[in-house]
Design a protein that fits this description.
Layout lengths: L1 H25 L8 E6 L1 E25 L2 E7 L6 E2 L4 E5 L2 H36 L5 H34 L1 E3 L4 E3 L9 E3 L5 E19 H9 L6 H4 L2 E4 L8 E8 L9 E9 L10 E18 L4 E3 L2 E7 L5 E5 L1 E6 L3 E6 L6 E3 L13 E4 L2
Parallel strand pairs: 1-20
Antiparallel strand pairs: 1-19, 2-9, 2-13, 3-5, 3-8, 4-7, 5-6, 7-9, 9-12, 10-11, 10-13, 11-12, 13-18, 14-15, 15-16, 15-19, 17-18
Helix pairs in contact: 2-3
Length: 373
């Protein structure tokens, strides 16, 4: 009886082993080979880019300053609004400078009167000299007085111009058109602009910005050395990206290259002009610049969504000629046409790879490939 029980137990164990082996060989609980969508890696000519951090700087920017002493009487604008060149922004107490203009005008009038007298006197003694009624020395003295009177008029005119200029500074106007910042100084503050200009606000012409960034001198040499990839067309449409997606897409036209390499950093500063759309961009915004530096006529491309990431880096699942899944580490380059990715190592043109359901396939699993693009 015991022998019979041992025989039954052994037969049951064998049956279980056969069942498990059958499930493993079929790679699914029901014995069916799973279908997976695959695509083939292919080649295409792509422009190579390298990204650099940068920032936006308004091409037109100007500081609004007070250049005279006096009490700030009024601010004539709302912070953040658009102001036009010549628009009145601040008023400084003009009393002192109005008095200075009046005094300078009076001095000029006195100097003109003195000149007129000196001129008449000179003409009189010059005529008298012809009749030997005066000495030649008197004529020279009269001529000298006339010359001095003419010089005094010039001094008075200069003083009057200075007084009028200072009076004009009491009305602070916009040096350029653009969007103006707030002022930290309110009406009632005393300004000492005569000794050194006092900063009141800033105006930014936001119509065009410079995307300012720096590249390595070696990368610059690579960019210049491959002129076919850095044609004027490419450098007139350098892609830009921001931290967040904006309503519009932006590109920069390369407009400036520094004439020398910064010896401290080994970099060259570049600038690209960026046209602002609907005043969406602001001075000082951070930007990523995708600078074209070359091309690859036979770059290997796959779907970017087919790439996974683990602790070892980037990987894909290649389907070999036996329709088995092979875990394959890869090295990648930049994106192409938003949905494709350049692969620099790990896959060859024509090789098949899994495009979807990466989490459901396993390394070494036999699958039924379904071509897709």
């Amino acid at each position: 009886m015991k022998t019979f029980i041992r025989t039954l137990a052994a037969m049951g164990a064998v049956a279980v082993m056969i069942s498990c082996t059958h499930k493993k060989s079929g790679d699914s609980g029901d014995g069916k080979v799973p279908s997976v969508e695959v695509a083939e890696a292919f080649t295409d000519s792509v422009v190579l880019h390298k990204t650099y951090p940068g920032y936006l700087s308004a091409q037109g920017a100007a500081a609004v300053v007070a250049q005279v002493n006096g009490q700030l009487l009024k601010k004539h604008y709302d912070a953040g609004t658009y102001v036009k060149k010549g628009q009145v922004l601040f008023t400084i107490d003009p009393t002192l400078y109005q008095d200075a203009v009046a005094k300078a005008e009076a001095s000029l009038a006195s100097a003109i009167s003195a000149r007129d007298y000196a001129d008449s006197h000179y003409k009189a003694v010059k005529k008298a000299l012809e009749a030997d009624a005066v000495s030649k020395m008197e004529v020279l003295s009269a001529e000298s007085a006339l010359n001095q009177a003419e010089a005094d008029i010039k001094d008075c005119k200069a003083a009057l111009n200075t007084a009028r200029t200072n009076l004009g500074y009491c009305t602070v106007t916009a040096p350029i058109s653009g969007y103006i910042s707030d002022s930290s100084l309110a009406a009632g503050n005393y300004l000492s602009g005569g000794a050194s200009p006092v900063h009141l606000a800033d105006i930014y012409d936001n119509s065009v910005f410079n995307a300012v960034f720096e590249i390595e001198d070696a990368q610059y040499e690579k960019m210049v050395g491959r002129g076919n990839a850095t044609s004027e067309k490419l450098l007139r449409a350098i892609p830009l990206q921001f931290r967040e997606n904006l309503l519009h897409s932006y590109s920069a036209d390369l407009s400036y290259e520094a004439p020398s390499v910064n010896k401290g950093t080994g970099t060259i500063q570049l600038k690209g002009a960026v046209r602002n759309i609907d005043n969406e961009l602001k001075d000082g915004m951070y930007v990523t610049v995708s600078l074209p530096y070359g091309d690859e006529p036979k770059a290997i491309l796959i779907n970017d969504a087919s790439i996974g990431t683990d602790q070892l880096g980037k990987y894909i699942y290649v389907v070999n000629d036996s329709d088995k899944v092979v875990y394959t580490p890869i090295e990648v380059g930049e994106t192409f046409h938003d949905s494709l990715r350049v692969v620099t190592k790990g896959i060859l043109p024509g090789q098949r790879y899994v495009t979807k359901a990466l989490l459901t396939v396993r390394d070494g699993e036999t699958v039924k490939p379904v071509p897709t693009r």
